[in-house]
Amino acid sequence: MITHPDRCGRRHIASATGFTLLEVLVTFFVLLILAGVALPVTRNTLRDQRNNRAAQIVTSFIDLTRNHAIAYERDMGVVFERLEPEGFGRSACLRLRQVRGVPIYTGESAKAMATLVNVAGTVGGPINAADFNPIESQLLALSADMILAGNAADAPIRLGDRLELPGGRIVTILDIARVGTATVNELRTVRVTFNLREPSNLPAPLTSTYTHPGRASRSTNPPQRVRYAIHRAPVLTNTASVSLPRGTAIDLNYSGFGVRGSEFMPNLNDASVVAGSVIVLFDSAGRVSRVNTGVGDVGPPVSQLFFCIGDLDGVQSAAADLLNQERRSRANVLRTSASWLVLNPATGRTFAAPLAPVGLTAMTGGIAEQTTQAIEQARFLANLGDTLD
């Protein structure tokens, strides 16, 4: 108590104001309880917003690249860069870059032609190669010499580029080499080999021996000289790139084609396997023309492409952890904060859909089979669910 005199000299007792120690402790304890309840909710909300933002960034970048392909009337593409080519980094993508198409090559002169031949020289045999005059097709001649010298990666026309023949038939270039008996190497014929019966609607490695059973073989009798066009691979640009928000990543472990495919998944059982970047190319009509999965397959897609966008700490580095249910390192395919980016190859259109919860109780088989079942279930629900704004 505190006493103080009034104007007449009399003293009055005044009570002290403030909080007791017990009141302060009770208030602090209540605030701690409220914070403990609100913090997880706030954290989950911020994570959802961050992942939604990542999906919007990726979608916008893909749409921009597709629009450039249409506006410039040339192939353009999006590169999904793996964090590292080996180890854990093979499974995560944190940055997207853009590749720009180069002009179609039709030879050095307006009269440049290709002669359709059979590699074995069989008269009337099936067409599986084309011969080019090195004077009329100098880039092909230069590429053949560079490939022979071991500089295939720097050649202006590379293995895997596309050769267009009359009627719009497009085949993959399997080899470029010099042939013939000319005494001067520069005058020797350039031969490009391909598989004319290569399926036009199925992914296939460059070394694939698969042939289309319903497509008749064209004959080399009589010999045919035709116009040609070579669609070269786009080149990487240094100006157009985008990074995902901190803490997010495109999880390539669960990304791929169709309802259950995981073609972008590296071999997690072997950390030494090198995986390249995933490349999606758009043609001048805005459609997906080719997809390089980064692990060997090159070809046009036949179904939708799915990319899993989740948290970086949800990316798994071992095959046994693809369905990891640990709280802090839970696999992205099991996280409700993750989302799917879906790309329609026929139209080039993209949309983002939330990743619905996946049930593991009814799944059977080993980890590989269960992972496939989880991916199939999640993508099926993504196609039925709402899109993210």
Key terms:
389 residues; minor pseudopilin epsh fold; ten-stranded antiparallel β-sheet; five-stranded antiparallel β-sheet; elongated
Structure description:
The chain has 389 residues and is α+β, with helices and mostly antiparallel strands. The protein has helices at residues 21-72, 138-148, 367-384, and strands at residues 2-5, 11-14, 76-82, 92-100, 114-117, 129-132, 162-165, 169-172, 175-179, 189-193, 224-226, 229-231, 235-243, 248-257, 278-282, 288-292, 298-299, 305-311, 339-343, 350-354. The strands form 4 sheets. Strands 3, 4, 13, 14, 15, 16, 17, 18, 19 and 20 form a 10-stranded antiparallel β-sheet that branches. The longest helix has 52 residues, at 21-72. It starts with a strand and ends in a 5-residue tail after the last helix.
Number of DSSP strand runs: 20
Computed CA radius of gyration, to the nearest angstrom: 31 Å
Give the CA-CA distance, first to last residue. Answer: 63 Å
Looking at the structure, what is the overall shape? elongated
Given the structure, what is the number of helices? 3
Name of the top-level CATH class of the largest domain: Alpha Beta
Low-confidence segments = 200-217
- CATH architecture type of the largest domain: 3-Layer(bab) Sandwich
Structural class: alpha+beta
CATH topology call of the largest domain = minor pseudopilin epsh fold
Overall pLDDT? 82
Give the helix level as a range of percent.
Answer: 10-25%
Largest beta-sheet details: 10 strands, antiparallel
